[in-house]
Write a sequence for this structure.
């Protein structure tokens, strides 16, 4: 009986073609487990980042010369340090500190994205709607923790605006969480379904162009630092503690320096206090004694405009990436414009995060002209990229000159007009009519018993009415003469 039931329920599909639902059954996640997963995703990056910042500050304090190590002081300083890692401006004894390191921000953002992706997988997230609880819980937890740190630091020498401490960490953590759950919950596919395909291709090319511009800034910064290595070596003090502190500070501000080099490579440049370094202008000023700034030149050089070849190559790369997305050149140009807009927006974000206030001294402020930099970056993408995308891509063949086809007229919403046949076209129809008439006459002659070969066809003449006697005589003569066809005197 069991064997018979197995035969009845056997799947006739060949192996390897079973549906995915049969191979991997979906397990329903309980509500309690989902709550635990969300709490872990919210608290794990908070605790880890706070502990890591406290450990780094404790190491710097322990290695510093003529300083007394205090575990309590390191823990108290870890709160403002955690806010600084999320780009929250601090007030140190009445002096604003807005130039905050970007490397800790990238690290804590990566931690949040990883925790969000793990929570989405463990919670059974498959759709964009499943990402909403994960992103909301993580962003809310970071916002509340930022407010708590700001309130606890209110009576110390470090002052923080509670509203800024609430909004900035929550916003950045939410963006990092969205980046983490995007692939797990199918957000890219949802975006592709709702956006224009040309715009999606432009966004991809724009992301490639922004990454290439950042790489150009990193190359320029690395080359400048390598050429100024003697200055870098002289900035490190003889003591281990001071050198270690300067090394940690320089590493933390490496992304800021790369963004400044990016702005210099594209043309606008950057400024540190009264010092202004631009591609076509230079104004002298003082610099902080930090090794990360050792590559800043001390005077203008005439060969600097040659570096503009790098952003031009980046624009050509974007155009080369877009050249094959469509045969219509205007659609390719629209994709180049979308890519340029994304690059310009990215430059605004990077320039805003890389600069800020630096006390009230001679080094205040550190800034990148984000408005000019974004416009110039847009031009660097659109001009060479549009040229390459337009001429390197395919072009539709022009239509031959002549009357439009019926299909083209129908597409334009007009009814096709039948052309009148020319006179030569009527000759074949006349010949066909004559042949048809001949065949009809032959068929009629066979039925009447007439010989068409001997009797030529004459036009039918309507006979005049005759008396009845004449008709009878004619019929009799015709009957008598039809018996002998060769009789002399036969009048046919």
């Amino acid at each position: 009986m069991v064997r018979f039931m197995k035969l009845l329920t056997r799947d006739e599909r060949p192996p390897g073609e079973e549906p995915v639902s049969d191979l991997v059954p979906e397990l329903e996640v309980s509500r309690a487990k989902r709550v635990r997963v969300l709490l872990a995703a919210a608290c794990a990056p908070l605790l880890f980042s706070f502990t890591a910042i406290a450990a780094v500050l404790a190491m710097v304090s322990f290695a510093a010369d003529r300083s007394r190590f205090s575990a309590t002081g390191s823990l108290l300083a870890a709160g403002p340090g955690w806010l600084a890692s999320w780009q929250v401006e601090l007030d140190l004894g009445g002096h604003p500190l807005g130039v905050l390191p970007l490397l800790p921000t990238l690290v804590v953002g990566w931690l949040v994205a990883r925790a969000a992706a793990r929570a989405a997988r463990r919670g059974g997230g498959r759709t964009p709607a499943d990402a909403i609880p994960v992103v909301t819980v993580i962003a809310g937890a970071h916002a509340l923790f930022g407010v708590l740190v700001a309130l606890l630091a209110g009576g110390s020498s470090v002052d923080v605006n509670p509203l800024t401490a609430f909004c900035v960490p929550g916003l950045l953590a939410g963006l990092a969480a969205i980046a983490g759950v995007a692939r797990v919950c199918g957000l890219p596919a949802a975006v592709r379904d709702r956006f224009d395909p040309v715009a999606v291709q432009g966004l991809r090319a724009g992301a490639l162009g922004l990454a290439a511009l950042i790489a150009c800034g990193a190359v320029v910064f690395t080359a400048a630092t390598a050429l100024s290595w003697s200055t870098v070596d002289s900035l490190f003090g003889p003591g281990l503690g001071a050198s270690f502190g300067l090394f940690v500070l320089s590493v933390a501000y490496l992304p800021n320096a790369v963004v400044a080099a990016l702005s210099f490579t594209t043309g606008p440049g950057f400024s540190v206090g009264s010092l202004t370094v631009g591609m076509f202008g230079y104004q002298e000023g003082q610099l902080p004694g930090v090794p990360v700034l050792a590559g800043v030149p001390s005077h203008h050089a005439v060969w600097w405009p040659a570096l503009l070849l790098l952003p031009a190559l980046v624009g050509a790369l974007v155009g080369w990436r877009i050249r094959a997305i469509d045969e219509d050149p205007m659609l390719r140009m629209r994709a180049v414009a979308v890519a340029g807009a994304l690059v310009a927006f990215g430059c605004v974000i990077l320039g805003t995060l890389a600069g800020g206030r630096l006390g009230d001294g001679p080094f205040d402020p550190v800034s990148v002209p984000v408005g000019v930099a974004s416009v110039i970056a847009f031009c660097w993408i659109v001009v060479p990229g549009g040229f390459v995308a337009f001429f390197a891509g395919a072009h539709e063949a022009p239509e031959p000159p002549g009357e439009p086809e019926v299909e083209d007229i129908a597409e334009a919403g007009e009814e096709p007009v039948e052309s009148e046949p020319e006179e030569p076209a009527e000759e074949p129809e006349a010949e066909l009519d004559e042949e048809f008439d001949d065949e009809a006459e032959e068929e009629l002659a066979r039925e009447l018993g007439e010989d068409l070969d001997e009797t030529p066809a004459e036009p039918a003449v309507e006979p005049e009415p005759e008396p009845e006697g004449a008709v009878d005589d004619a019929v009799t003569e015709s009957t008598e003469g039809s018996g002998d066809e060769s009789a002399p005197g036969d009048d046919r």
About this structure: The chain has a mean pLDDT of 80.
